[in-house]
Amino acid sequence: MKVGKRYKNAISKVDVQKKYSLEDAITLSKGLASAKFDETVEMAVRLGVKPQQADQMVRSSVVLPRGIGKKTRILVFAKGEKEKEAREAGADFVGAEDMIEKVTGGWMDFDRVVATPDIMGAVGKLGKVLGPRGLMPNPKSGTVTFDLVKVIKEIQAGKVEFKTEKAGIVHAPIGKASFKPEDLIENARVLLETIVRLKPASSKGHYLKSITVSTTMGPGIPVDTVQISNLMNVV
Question: What's the pLDDT score for residue 4?
Answer without folding.
Answer: 66
